[in-house]
């Protein structure tokens, strides 16, 4: 009887320990699964955050570049500082290359060619002032040219003394359109240290 009770007690204790052990193992497995799921979610969240930061930086760089492109303005005088000269007349229409460039925001004007190239689609305003000294034979006539088409003309004629002509225009330009000033054949232009002959332009607003 004593042996039977002891044996039964051992069986009950074994069952209890087995149940406790099984429950503990299940709890551990559940905890591990939950921890693994949390780590996977955390990694996914960190990946999304990294991607979001990269995308935000890219968007900020694009906005910064667009803002820089929208800042376009230049002013240029025909001759370099200290020079005095009368240019022309030429037998053919000749582009004027304005060498003295105190302002060239956006670097859209090229002082080697005299050509302004639109970096963004928009409305631009241009002005050009042309000086000359009358000699009774030659007047001054300079045309603002968009791509290859003459737009507006600045003209003046007198027999003696200093004379000048000017004009201005607002143009809708596409990206890559060019604008420059062309001295008409048979005419001449004058410039000196006072920078009497100039070419200027700026972006009014993008479109």
From TrEMBL:
Signal sequence bounds: 1-18
Domain C1q: 67-207
Subcellular location: Secreted
One GO cellular component term: extracellular region
Pfam families: C1q
Matching InterPro entries: C1q_dom, Cerebellin_Synaptic_Org, Tumour_necrosis_fac-like_dom
Location (main, coarse): secreted
Keywords, ordered alphabetically: Secreted, Signal
Keyword ATP-binding: no
PANTHER family linked to this entry: CEREBELLIN 13-RELATED, CEREBELLIN-RELATED
Protein name stated in the entry: Complement C1q-like protein 4
Organism lineage: Eukaryota, Metazoa, Chordata, Craniata, Vertebrata
Gene name of the encoded protein: LOC116036155
């Amino acid at each position: 009887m004593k042996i039977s009770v002891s044996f039964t007690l051992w069986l009950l204790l074994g069952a209890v320990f087995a149940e406790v052990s099984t429950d503990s193992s299940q709890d551990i497995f559940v905890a591990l699964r939950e921890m693994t799921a949390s780590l996977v979610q955390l990694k996914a969240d960190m990946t999304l955050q990294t991607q979001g930061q990269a995308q935000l930086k890219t968007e900020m760089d694009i906005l910064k570049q667009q803002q820089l492109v929208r800042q376009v303005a230049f002013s240029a005088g025909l001759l370099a500082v200290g020079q005095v000269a009368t240019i022309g007349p030429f037998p053919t229409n000749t582009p004027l290359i304005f060498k003295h460039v105190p302002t060239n925001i956006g670097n859209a004007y090229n002082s080697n060619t005299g050509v302004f190239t639109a970096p963004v689609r928009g409305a631009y305003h241009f002005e050009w002032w042309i000086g000359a000294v009358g000699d009774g034979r030659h007047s001054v006539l300079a045309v603002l040219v968009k791509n290859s088409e003459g737009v507006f003309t600045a003209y003046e004629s007198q027999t003696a003394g200093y004379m000048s002509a000017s004009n201005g225009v607002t143009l809708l330009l596409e990206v890559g359109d060019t604008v420059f000033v062309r001295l008409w054949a048979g005419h001449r232009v004058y410039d000196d240290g006072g920078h009497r002959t100039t070419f200027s332009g700026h972006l009014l607003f993008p479109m």
